[in-house]
């Protein structure tokens, strides 16, 4: 039997749960529009406003949690004995198993973890918050500002404790050891999540979810924050260095995601490429000094036009001990293993790219006819010469989409418009390795996902999602770096894809428990 108040009644409503605020908003709007005395329904506005502000505090801390390129010092003093004893009570076996274990289910603390709790816990925390407020009101010192201030400061402290990004430099505690007994820090509360039976002190929550813990999607209500994002982008462009974003552990090895502080469009600005390569080079050299075994170049950081898929750095620093990997061999393997064995012809866009070349050469060896869309005869001929002589007739250069109007297997390596998609016959399946993915506008066709793999089940500490992937799923090139490390390979994987290694890398990935994730394999 489910314990009472251990689940939210609107748990399965998803984003539609916010409709529950509708009656309050409607009541406030009606009073403002049609009644003379708006003050009588002011409580509706206060509830809406305080909920919005509490959510905003969580979001600000969440943003700070991801901005490791910033350094800030904040001093937070500790209080709330009521919270201490309530928290300690929830660690008793029955209450922990039926209620508080939900809060501790977050493997990596995050500001939104502060509010990840059951209804009973929130009721208790509301009581803890409300007692000082009620006491102040009864003594004649209550005010609207006091209520707002107490609740929001309470949330501020809770988010700080769960931020998983230290805000007080450790040098402070080295010089003043006694301060560790008076200052509440993320490290202090992180120990509680690790050891369970220590560090119970500190504050309260609100139930929201981190955007980083869910797959990326467009959220229109964030549009007003674009000017702020633009300003942050300029700051990062001018002063930021490569920084740590997330991490996880797999079989005793620490895997980290480092972020080059550049937005996607900047990779296509000719004057910005030198600076981007400098950031990547510094990250590689830093990894080498730290004794890192493998460093993967993700997304646009391995662009052929930018650095030759990593070749630039390997040639410049031949003494590197860290292995530089673009991971695209596994990307090609995932795409190629989506095909059914009865496919005899495919249409390939982005045909002369790194992945396009490898795909074409692999398929022609399997006696699959490849219609390679490219206007460059020179690049087509170069790829053609790499194919075995008895397989070259399976590679066909085409220059128009009309050539594929009878082909039901499209491999999209270059973004195509809805009009270009219209040439595909009904029943076509679009495989793709293009970012961003193409628009799925054809109802009579199917669309594959970006090449991705699910990490092995023994992975630990996953705290965020990778782009549009669900948690635990990573792009195939990311998985390629993981496989490179697990196998202990000593070669660099840069430049052109070695077609002879595609099957080898695929089998290694499956051996280590990685599984392909796509609409075809599901």
From TrEMBL:
- Segments forming domain Very-long-chain aldehyde decarbonylase CER1-like C-terminal: 346-516
Question: What biological processes does GO assign it?
Answer: lipid biosynthetic process
- InterPro entries per the UniProt record, alphabetical: CER1-like_C, Fatty_acid_hydroxylase, NAD(P)-bd_dom_sf, Sterol_Desaturase_Related
By its UniProt entry, which PANTHER family does this protein fall under? Answer: STEROL DESATURASE
Q: Which residues form a coiled coil?
A: none
Transmembrane region(s): 12-30, 42-61, 220-239
Keywords recorded for this protein, A-Z: Membrane, Transmembrane, Transmembrane helix
Chief location: membrane
Cellular compartment(s): Membrane
**Membrane topology label:** Multi-pass membrane protein
Family matches, as SUPFAM superfamilies:
NAD(P)-binding Rossmann-fold domains
Entry's family note: Belongs to the sterol desaturase family.
Q: Which domain of life is it from?
A: Eukaryota
The Fatty acid hydroxylase domain extends over 80-206
Q: What is this protein called?
A: Fatty acid hydroxylase domain-containing protein
Q: Name one GO molecular function term.
A: oxidoreductase activity
Kindly state one GO CC term assigned in the UniProt record.
Answer: membrane
